């Protein structure tokens, strides 16, 4: 089997804080192949965005630091690479879409100029050719009257349009990997559906690998091929989307799926209570030595407070880091 | 019909912004934020309003709270016409209707201790003696699942979910007849969202509360509401009880909204077969003369563009504003 397009292995990221050392990523291993969509889910503070920032080489240093591990893009090591070299890769080979399209576009440049900028920088083409590419990209993301809209400023566009511009910008240099950090959280569901269709279509055309970060399990179910569930800086469950969502092994994944009120086309007359995950995500500075989820878990074993569970294959193509799941398997 | 059980009545509510002459004598554009909304909320139930951003759902909530100017129409709480109150009488009546805001981070004064924040409405409304107020605050803390000792903490020492509990305690303090909840859980993580939704349900059962619940999340609305109104561009397009609306949505907009929600039980391939809404809603300044949804409607006919449909009540009490809801759509 050939190497995956992007492979993150044993990545550890530490942040020095006043309260002590916070391990925001704890031995993260994941990979994504060409034409694949990997979803990363979890609550806020679980390390989803940190994973994205590490891949982009955007961890603020200090206070953050990649302590160990490697990130390889088709075999090329990104950890420890100089800023100049990284700049050649960022925006060219790896594109990123941020959550907030309002704040991540520059308000004083037209959207066309902003898309053309990365094309000019990475491909060294003339300003005119870059502008033409910008218009093409705006067409590709289905913005009506693309040529006219290229001269619009971000404030003249709606939220959905701005997110399309962000996508056009990220895809302008035809990156091999696209990282989308909560790309639709700020948008209405109808617009979200449009953006998902768009991502899917563009992926079919360009074969881009997408890492999609979200807290919405439904979005994962309908868009991703594989999913990694993160909790307190670690991956706690990983596998094929269909399998993880229909047969979750980790209690946290089960809770995440059950605590969301699911829209049903035949609701019963009685309102049921939602399942709760008690408590909150722990502070990363005092995680203890056992399973980080143990204080909130409803299937906790004696072993959970003393040993940190490791990712084990519980089903085919399906890993979970949970002693309870392992014990169940052993039976 | 016994009016006794109706907590809130809204009749033909309109909120328009602008339209005034500026100092140059030029008339500014009028934004029709809420344009003729009528509904009733029976006591002890939850009435939900859903819609995309810009549909006027939050403005409706603010108008009921008397926090924006009401251009036209009546808002009646029990037998008091809130829309007619002014000055001191309005201020006195405010203890009877309270609001829980979306963002628990910005809606609590960071310089006040939690106990003082919850006691504030009691102080302002002169309810009970100072000793009684302290006891009341302790009771409110327990009711919303906080410990009375936490009264001395500042808002920043609480997590997002706990802050929303404080917001609820504040709203509950004056024993209001109506609590308006404007997207109370949309800023929270899914696990915390479930805790707050369950708490709201429990409090309603125990104290017989009446909620007006504003949300864009159809799953949440389906979970918590008894009656649901769907708004589009300042008007209610469909209004029905929870079971009827979700099992048999009749307005094409409602159907599109429901279809846009990704489901955990959905499959990647299902997604592409759904009807997609294209584009954004038209501007609330230059409204079309026909049905406001006609420009995005997948089934619109000529008559839809010529005159606006009225909100009509079907035999089962389900209200829809669509010319085509009777026949074509009921396949």
How is this structure best described in words?
The complex is a heterodimer of chains A (331) and B (331). Chain A is an alpha/beta fold. In chain A, 32% of the residues lie in helices and 23% in strands. Chain A has an eight-stranded mixed β-sheet with strand order 6-7-8-3-9-10-12-11, sandwiched between helices. In chain A, strands 2-1-4-5 form a four-stranded antiparallel β-sheet, covered by helices on one side. In chain A, helix 3 (111-123) packs across helix 4 (127-140), helix 4 crosses helix 6 and helix 6 runs parallel beside helix 7. Chain A is globular. Chain A starts with 5 loop residues before the first strand and ends with a helix. With 331 residues, chain B is an alpha/beta fold. In chain B, helix 3 packs parallel to helix 5 (160-172). At the A-B interface, helix 6, helix 7, helix 8, helix 9 and helix 10 of A face helix 6, helix 7, helix 8 and helix 9 of B.
Brief characterization of the structure:
The complex is a heterodimer of chains A (331) and B (331). Chain A is an alpha/beta fold. In chain A, 32% of the residues lie in helices and 23% in strands.
